[in-house]
Amino acid sequence: MEGPEKQQTLGDSFRQSRKEFWFMIGTWVAFAVWTVGYNGIFASEVEVEVELFFGMPKWVFFGVAAPWAFALAVTIWFALCFMEDTPLEVDESLSEDGGGDK
Amino acid sequence: MTALISFGVYLAFVFALAAIANRAGKSRSFVSEYFLGSKNIGLWAFAFTYAATAASGGSFMGFPSLIYTHGWVLAWWIAGYMVVPMVALGLLAKRLNQVGRIAGAITIPELLRRRFESAAVGNFATVLVVFFMFFFLLAQFKAGAQIMATLLDGIPVYETAVSAVESAKDGIPWVGKADGDYLLCLLVFAVSVIVYTTFGGFRAVVWTDVMQGIVMGIGVIIMLFLCLSQVGGLANATRQVEKMTPPEFVTLELAPTKSEDINLRRGTWLELPDDGGIVRIKSAVSIPAKPNGNVEVEAIRITTPEEIEKVSRLVAFERPVSVALKGEPVPYAYGAGERGVYTRAPGPSKDNPAGFLGVMLALSFFAFWNFSGAGQPSYMVRQMAFQNTVTLRRSMVMVALYFGMIYFPLVLIFTSARVILPGMEIFPDRVMPEMASTLTENAGVPWLAGLLVAAPFAAVMSSVDSFLLLVSSGVVRDIYQESINPNASEKQIKRLSYIVTVVVGVLGVFAVLYPPQFLQDLIIFASAGLGACFLVPMVFALYWGRTTAKAMVVGMTTGGVTILILYLIGFLKTGEFEEYLLLGMHPFVWSVILVTPIMVIVSKIGQPPSETLREKFFGRPNLH
User: Fold this and answer.
1) What residue of A is the nearest CA neighbor of B107?
2) Does position B319 have pLDDT exceeding 90, yes or no?
3) Mean pLDDT of the region B434-438
4) Scanning every residue of chain A, which has its alpha carbon at the shortest distance from the alpha carbon of B348?
């Protein structure tokens, strides 16, 4: 079955995946705080005439559109620079025949 | 008619792709190919199948109707999608694919069964997938039928067919009371999707997803361009929306003023006497000639002077009908008479005196879109199918660009729709196809409506096909092959897969003959249920070797029961299919809060899993 080297690779890739998992959770928290925090304060303000920014209410721009653009940049950086490639085929003999745990 | 032709061409492409997919998969193992495309889905296919499945009928029918009904606050409601491509796609994908390969699993229940070496975990997961996924199917069938009905409305051949269906269905139990036009469209839609899904399997679903994803993206961009040019720019639209006040819900009493039968179409505008304003009726009515009497119909009364003036300029009100209000008008519970309510939070609400979106609910949805998204088996099964992690990383970039291109522009389009199409609160789920028809007619390119309507139709189809496969794989692979007949031949499995896909589709059609008003209600219930049952348990299964089979069953049960109880309380309190927001938070958030500690406790107090099992899925501990 799996040799020692193969298992070590699996362990390393698991730890890398876990690191990426926590980075994603952290990113979610950061954007949730920005969006919900900013809009929680500014989105319900009653104004005589709503202030516009690029044609949309100002709170939509700074509370949704701007963080959305920033989140896009973070996602691209994460996918292309932070996330590591991992061998997925741990053992060819286990992948197609219904599993090695029979 | 031209719209219908371009729509027909689109459908023909879908069937052609299914046929090609069927041929391409013939040389491979049936089960792996039919349910998982032989696990070799590449970059474009993976990115688009994920995006197209995510952008379901909810995104293109339910979401626009909510934007139209509640205004700019929907930008906040959907804001969680800014990190969905990273979180929902990345949180589990790499580990899921790896563990799936180690386990040799094709379905999610199968993966769980082998990960924990427990039939109970696998069987329980199958039951949950089939149960909640069925609600998804219902919502998508309804959406598909509605889009077709709008597209075909007024075409003579179609009207004849509807009349034929109307007379044929009379007397048939259960079916007899369904609307003829809805029933006809539902049948045509369901048969189309069932046929190509059954014929082509997972590969056809993925390939059609790619095409449908492209159609959706192009459709939204064209709509945005047409919409902003016709409304005089976004700033102009927002200024007009700012002046609007929510409509009132009324009941009308209609009586003929001449001795002839009167037929009024759904959505007909009428004028109330003595400057009582203008109203729009919810359903088609036939008013018998004098002296037979009056007919009652539900309607909305427009309350914004600028909208009244606009409609009055465009519509001729003279009809041989006298119109009178019956009873008192029902105003919105929040926002009635308030200018600016459509441009700020919490947004107007028909039922909720606190408005549409409070801060806690906004936070709940920010969590919901990401984590419930990550916990959907229909996405998970795709995450088991990509070729390698390069595909995953690049797909994440593509999906991020794609979602940015779709969701935020939809908010711009459908807040502007309030200016272009007044009075759509009366049937909000139809705003997307109506908008497509109106924009293209105004622009003098009616044939383009076919492509634009194909966008939501594509979204619906790409979701239905995935859900059909998921439910049938649950029955065939996880119940029949695992528990009833482990030695079934490929021929038997193949035949059963086809039969189950068809039977599930047919059951879906019967169940959705009388659908609830808001599509989004069904979709959110099913998403929440699946997310609650699978997200936290799957995170534990993939990232914590100490998790036990017992903890998995307890975790999935706690998640599902939390959702069901909070929906039941919501139903008992409001009499409608609605969730109960305990402390202002969505039931899904409560499920995560409850399931996480419970799974830790149950795992800790139970017998730890064997070292062999841990090494198999997590590797050896790092001794360095």
Assistant:
1) A98
2) no
3) 88
4) A44
Nearest CA in chain B to A45: B344
Is the separation of the CB atoms in B224 and B233 below 8 Å?
Answer: no
With CB atoms and an 8 Å threshold, state whether B344 touches A78.
no
Chain A residues in contact with B98 (beta carbon < 8 A): 10, 13, 17, 86, 88, 90
Domain residue ranges in chain A: 35-84
Rounded to a whole number, what is the distance in angstroms from the first to the last CA of chain A?
A: 13
Q: Considering only CA atoms, which of B175, B218, B284 is closest in space to residue B506?
A: B175
Mean pLDDT of B542-549: 93
Residues of B in contact with A2 (CB under 8 A): 615-616
Q: What sections of B153-179 are H helices per DSSP?
A: 156-169
- Assess A37–B contact: CB distance below 8 Å, yes or no: no
A 10 A CB-CB count for B386 gives: 27
Which residues 57-96 of A have a C-beta within 8 angstroms of B? Answer: 57, 59-60, 63-65, 67-69, 71-72, 74-76, 78-80, 83-86, 88-91, 94-96
Least trusted range by pLDDT, from B6-10, B28-32, B118-122, B435-439: B28-32
Segments in chain A forming alpha helices (H): 4-42, 58-60, 66-77, 92-95
Backbone angles phi, psi at B296, to 5 degrees: -100, 145
- Only one residue has tokens 């491509």, namely B85
Secondary structure of residue A90 in the 3-state scheme: coil
Helix extents (H) in B41-83: 43-54, 57, 63-70, 73-77
Looking at B137-151, B199-213, B272-286, B352-366, which range is the least confident one? Answer: B199-213
8 A C-beta contact, residue B459 and residue B214: no
Contact present, B237 and B430 (Cβ < 8 Å): no
CB burial string A62-76: b at 16+ within 10 A, e below: bbbbebbeebbebbb
- Determine the average pLDDT of the residues in B522-528: 82
Are B541 and B599 in contact, with CB atoms under 8 Å apart?
no
Round to whole Å and give the CA distance between B268 and B311. Answer: 11
Cβ separation B76–A99 shorter than 8 A: no
Hey, are the CB atoms on A52 and B235 less than 8 Å from each other?
A: yes
Residue written as tokens 């070797």? Answer: B545
Using only C-alpha atoms, chain B has a radius of gyration, in whole angstroms, of 25
Residue B102 distance to chain A (closest CA, Å): 6
Beta strands in B185-275 (DSSP E): 248-256, 262-264, 269-271
* Start-to-end CA span in chain B (Å): 71
Beta bridge partners of A52: A57
Residues contacting B222, CB < 8 A, separation 6+: B448, B451, B452
Calculate the average pLDDT of chain B. 84
Higher-confidence position of A99 and B296: B296
Yes or no, beta carbons of B622 and A94 under 8 Å apart: no
Confidence of residue B482 (pLDDT cuts 50, 70, 90): confident
CB contacts of A8 in chain B (<8 Å) are 619-620
Closest CB from A20, A31, A35 relative to B90 = A20
- A11–B622 CB contact, under 8 Å: yes
**Whether B364 contacts A64, CB under 8 Å:** no
Q: Give the position of tokens 């219904």.
A: A98
| Six-digit token string for B111 | 């993966």
Question: Helix, strand or coil for residue B590?
Answer: helix
The shortest CB-CB distance from B101 to any of A24, A45, A95 is to A95
pLDDT at B602: 95
Q: So what's the pLDDT on residue B84?
A: 93
Give residue A95's pLDDT: 40
